[in-house]
Task: inverse folding
């Protein structure tokens, strides 16, 4: 996946990437509203960082990390435009991310997990665990199997519940995995598609609600 190309609108999407919904994923916004997050917050694979920008506006100290220079430039500019000096952004590969050992009380993964190659998961889980303070919370919103057609060769690395639990529990204490939704701008399938997207339900803004899991975990200590 050419992530920077997606943000530059050169990667085959018809317009902005479908995950740029202009606001935090609703499942994660609900966790924030329920008081589940504590500063400092790491927004892992932040993209345009709507989640951490919203948290920063609410007074949290946040730091976002993403592979792509285009997304980091956009997030940094948005923080400056909104006067959020408590929001910082860094271009880095999350599988080798370092320099913040023990800092974060919350780590949020808003649709990063399924964006990584499967062989990169363990390195990612290790780097964010190292960056977490003792007792930190870790929250992952990830596509469930069945979100995309089985026949598609190129699609996110959807998970089933056992696979997610097994991967994460090598590093983290898993507290809960529950069904959830990822909201994305996915147009209706053209009538002549060979293997169309399943017609999942849509929200009140017309965005598709794709099946997902919401994982909550913490770092021992
Ligand atoms: C589906 S997007 C989600 C972006 C954002 N969290 C959101 O909810 O809108 C996945 C993001 O992960 C980033 N990403 C993919 N591989 C990465 C890696 N190895 N290290 C850091 N970021 C990565 C991509 O650049 C992209 O911004």
Result:
């Amino acid at each position: 996946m050419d992530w920077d190309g997606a943000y530059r609108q050169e990667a085959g999407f018809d317009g902005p990437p479908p995950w740029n919904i202009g606001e935090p994923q609703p499942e994660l916004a609900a966790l924030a509203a329920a008081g589940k997050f504590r500063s400092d917050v790491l927004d892992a694979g932040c993209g345009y960082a709507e989640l951490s920008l919203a948290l920063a506006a609410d007074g949290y100290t946040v730091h976002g990390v993403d592979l792509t220079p285009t997304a980091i430039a956009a997030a940094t500019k948005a923080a400056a435009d909104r006067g959020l000096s408590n929001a910082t952004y860094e271009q880095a590969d999350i599988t080798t991310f370092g320099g913040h050992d023990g800092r974060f009380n919350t780590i949020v993964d808003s649709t990063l997990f399924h964006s990584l190659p499967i062989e990169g998961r363990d390195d990612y889980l290790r780097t964010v665990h190292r960056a977490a303070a003792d007792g930190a919370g870790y929250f992952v919103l990830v596509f469930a199997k069945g979100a995309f057609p089985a026949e598609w060769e190129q699609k996110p690395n959807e998970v089933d519940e056992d696979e997610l639990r097994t991967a994460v529990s090598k590093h983290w204490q898993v507290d809960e995995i529950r069904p959830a939704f990822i909201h994305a701008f996915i147009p209706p399938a053209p009538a002549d598609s060979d293997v169309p997207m399943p017609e999942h339900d849509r929200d009140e803004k017309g965005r598709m609600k794709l099946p997902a899991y919401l994982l909550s975990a913490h770092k021992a200590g």
